[in-house]
Request: fold
Amino acid sequence: MDKRIQVQLSAEQIAARVRELGADITRDYAGQELVLVGVLKGSFIFMADLARAIELPDLRVEFLGVQSYGDETSSSGVVQITFDLTKPIDGKHVLIVEDIVDTGLTMDYLLDQMRTRHPASVKLCSLLHKPSRMKKPCAIDYLGFTIPDLFVIGYGLDYAQKYRNLPYIGVLTE
Ligand code: 5GP
Reply:
């Protein structure tokens, strides 16, 4: 374990919560076709674990690449889609899978974008939420953990493109 990283959420805590989220989603979408839309890059590990915790026969997986302009640790709300869905989502139930909702600016933009494509429904599943920094409130239908205003890394989340491979979520202490 890297001594410069303070663990906030262990791999075990994350796995247990992801199982619960998967069970909730399985129950709520029973009998329906669901499209999971993972927001790259941060959600790639959460997406892989969550998809395996959802027991629905008609589950599709898609990814969206977004670039959010801002400095290294916060977004400005100016968002560009750099990689789009491979199939249309009109008439489909869509669940956006995000790593973290911080100011809410990215999600506000993405939810609006998805709604213009006429899906049957659009909901949001985020592993983490920092409510103290919220600028654009958006409903998080499935939430893993609420965290304090700290810049977290690991389990898909980066600092300058590093640390995504940590199996836990932590904070850099230096
Ligand atoms: P928002 O638009 O809600 O402010 O920012 C959302 C995006 O900013 C997240 O998808 C993530 O890429 C990045 N972000 C926000 N907070 C953190 C954090 O604590 N750690 C990391 N690694 N990225 C963050």
Observations:
- The chain has a mean pLDDT of 93.
- The domain at 11-149 is CATH 3.40.50.2020 (Rossmann fold).
- The first strand starts at residue 5 and ends at 9.
- The chain has one domain: 11-149.
